[in-house]
């Protein structure tokens, strides 16, 4: 066995080779690069952690702010309940006494419901409301369609005289909503009266202290309103689905949901289909927002454009403030091109000479006025053309 050399003993130094030097240099370079890569990675992780920490901090602050706002709102609602109940009770007491006085009066009612002016109309409406004569109220309203603007002004004041306005309204429109009980003898469409009465009920049932965020409808009436809504939904199958239901009926249903505050989040897609199918109705954009469809408006407008309903799309964009995203001028130009094509096909049809003359006149009117008229004017003219061409 060879002896182990003494570490302190000088040994013969060997000359390092150039290859070994290159190997060592390469190793040092690799270590340096690896160290730099690790350092950069650690710095990147630190920066990401700081960003996530800041984001989390902002979210916590926002959540704290929202929580505080929600707690303040709940506290305000809780404190307002007593005042709201007092106001509601005093109103009921006042209306009860007024109803008793009305019942005790010997004043002869006009059997034909004729009234001389707005005061007379209001007095007649109040009389039926005080006595809770829903059927007579309904008959009087539908007989005054020519005075619909006056009715819209006076009905809320009359409904405020009711002991139970919500019950009164549901009973008043029950002849035609949720289903038309007149059968084949139904005659004219009375959905306009339903919508008018339901709209007029809103200012009567809103909380007098905190407003529309709380609807003063008793739990039993709200449950009854939900049952009515479910009955209407089930009747869709008998009518052939959403595509075949009349737009005025859709309007009444959606207004019923908004008035009584019974919108369901799980039914938003169903509401969306109803709104799109009846988009030409003037009140649909506002109803859509009230139904909770505000976030879906851009997609709904895109759908209307794809269906060739540019006028409806323009109406929606103005109502919800999306004019920048959906400029109306290109949409109107597109509609004008489609309208010209449709009018040309009608003009070429000898069997539709009268209808074609109307279309031709309206087209000339649009070409002259579209560049200069405001949205309200052109929407009216174009809507007339829309009905003429496509109904």
UniProtKB/TrEMBL annotation:
Name the domain of life this protein comes from. Eukaryota
Give GO terms for biological process.
cell differentiation; flower development
For this UniProt entry, which segments traverse the membrane? 361-385
Q: Does the keyword Ubl conjugation apply?
A: no
Q: Which UniProt keywords apply?
A: Developmental protein, Differentiation, Flowering, Membrane, Transmembrane, Transmembrane helix
Q: Which family is annotated?
A: Belongs to the Frigida family.
**Matching PANTHER family:** FRIGIDA-LIKE PROTEIN 3-RELATED, FRIGIDA-LIKE PROTEIN 4A-RELATED
Q: What is this protein called?
A: FRIGIDA-like protein
Look up and give the organism this protein is from.
Answer: Gossypium raimondii (Peruvian cotton)
